[in-house]
């Protein structure tokens, strides 16, 4: 209507319906298989792993369809779209966290150099000052705890910037102090992770710019999730 081409809105509407239908079908078809695989691995109820004579997970299909229909009846379409968005962003964030943990995970076949040294060497503070050459169990534990604290700092920054934006723009002292302290915590956590040794295992592809790129991905995904509504 803005460009005075009103007949094009019907084509856009048809294209939007086709894209939405494709997205819904692409999300619903894998769900029974995911429930079936999780039940087969013992993560869900065993009844969801049952199949019929054609090797189709009938019960998992019925359960996923019933839950999808119930959500469609109880919630608004906008809320469901936001839930789908937050699920995608959360999955990307978990992938970034997994990349961090896997890169700093010790090789099971390599000896742990910390175990063979003195007791003071086992302290985490000593790992920050004198990091090992290869990843160890203690360095991996330090990275895992630091990643957890880093995610908390990132979530705090995202919540502050999304909910307390007028407070920050007006220069309120406590808002600025909270934001700066959380940003400082993110920087310190980044330095702690960066100081630890990475895995030297040869693989076909490695994510570059570690740990900056996964941390930046977590920050962007968390910021986008914080922009969604409280109902989501």
Automatic annotation (TrEMBL):
Its main location: membrane. It holds the Pfam family AA_permease_C. It comes from the Eukaryota. Keywords: Membrane, Transmembrane, Transmembrane helix. The chain crosses the membrane at residues 12-36, 57-75, 81-102, 142-165, 171-193, 205-226. GO terms for molecular function: L-arginine transmembrane transporter activity; L-lysine transmembrane transporter activity; L-ornithine transmembrane transporter activity. It is found in: Membrane. Residues 205-232 form the Cationic amino acid transporter C-terminal domain. GO terms for biological process: L-arginine import across plasma membrane. InterPro entries: AA/rel_permease1 (IPR002293), CAT_C (IPR029485). It is a multi-pass membrane protein. Gene3D superfamilies: Amino acid/polyamine transporter I (1.20.1740.10). One of its GO terms (cellular component) is plasma membrane. This is Cationic amino acid transporter C-terminal domain-containing protein. It comes from Micrurus carvalhoi.
């Amino acid at each position: 209507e803005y460009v005075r081409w009103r007949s094009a809105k019907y084509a856009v509407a048809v294209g939007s319906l086709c894209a939405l239908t494709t997205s819904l079908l692409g999300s619903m078809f894998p769900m029974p298989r995911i429930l079936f695989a999780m039940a087969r691995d013992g993560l869900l109820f065993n009844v969801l792993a049952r199949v019929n004579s054609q090797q189709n997970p009938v019960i998992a299909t019925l359960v996923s369809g019933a839950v999808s229909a119930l959500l469609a009846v109880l919630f608004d379409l906008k809320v469901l779209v936001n839930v789908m968005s937050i699920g995608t962003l959360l999955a990307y964030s978990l992938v970034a966290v997994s990349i961090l943990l896997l890169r700093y995970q010790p090789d099971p076949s390599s000896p742990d150099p910390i175990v063979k040294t003195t007791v003071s060497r086992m302290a985490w503070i000593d790992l920050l000052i004198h990091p090992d050459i290869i990843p160890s169990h203690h360095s991996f534990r330090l990275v895992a705890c630091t990643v957890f604290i880093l995610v908390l700092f990132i979530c705090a920054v995202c919540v502050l910037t999304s909910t307390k934006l007028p407070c920050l723009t007006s220069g309120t002292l406590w808002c600025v102090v909270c934001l700066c302290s959380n940003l400082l915590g993110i920087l310190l956590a980044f330095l702690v992770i960066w100081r630890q040794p990475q895995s030297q295992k040869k693989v076909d592809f490695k994510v570059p710019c570690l740990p900056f790129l996964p941390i930046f991905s977590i920050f962007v995904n968390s910021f986008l999730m914080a922009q969604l509504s409280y109902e989501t």
